[in-house]
Design a protein that fits this description.
Layout (H helix, E strand, L loop, with lengths): L10 E10 H5 L16 H9 L2 H5 L20 E3 L2 H15 L6 H4 L1 H16 L4 E6 L4 E10 L14
Antiparallel strand pairs: 1-2, 1-4, 3-4
């Protein structure tokens, strides 16, 4: 007997950050004040996020993907209810960023097609999608599509738009 599949998320929030890689490498603003390894109630998530103004105010990607949902709604670049539309947004971000990618490997159309296919698959079953690329110079770009209401990894994190 197989376990039932979790319910599909109600929607996906999309995030994009581009900045200096030293900023990205500084983990202090990328983690909430407490390392949480178990499921906690939604209200407690809000208290954890509020206890760290640096984390809450930062637009640098958090260390754990679902922790984007602890950030203010202003950090959301787009929201989609359909996985194919979220996937198209992700693809469009990669297309826009490609000329700035540091390596030929990341700019390779076949590699990008593989990444896009993997993203489409992951979104089709309710997962999150994460992409990060070093850019020419000292830059880094991060593109995330995060399942919300509910997230499979952290199902009790409340939606930032509620």
């Amino acid at each position: 007997m197989t376990a039932p599949h979790p319910p599909a998320p109600g929607h996906w929030h999309c995030y994009r950050w581009t900045g200096d890689r030293r900023t990205y490498d500084d983990e202090s603003a990328r983690r909430p004040p407490h390392l949480v390894v178990h499921t906690i109630p939604p209200q407690q998530w809000k208290q954890i996020a509020a206890a760290s103004p640096a984390f809450t105010a930062s637009d640098v990607p958090p260390l754990e993907v679902p922790h984007w949902l602890l950030r203010p709604a202003r950090t959301i670049k787009a929201t989609f209810q359909e996985p194919d539309k979220a996937s198209a947004w992700y693809r469009d971000q990669i297309t826009e960023l490609t000329p700035a990618f540091m390596t030929d490997h990341d700019r390779d159309p076949a590699r990008q097609a593989e990444c896009q296919a993997a993203a489409e698959d992951r979104l089709s079953w309710g997962g999150d999608v994460v992409g990060g690329w070093y850019l020419r110079g000292t830059g880094f770009a991060s593109v995330h599509v995060v399942a919300c209401s509910t997230n499979r990894i952290r199902p009790t994190i409340p939606c930032p738009m509620s």
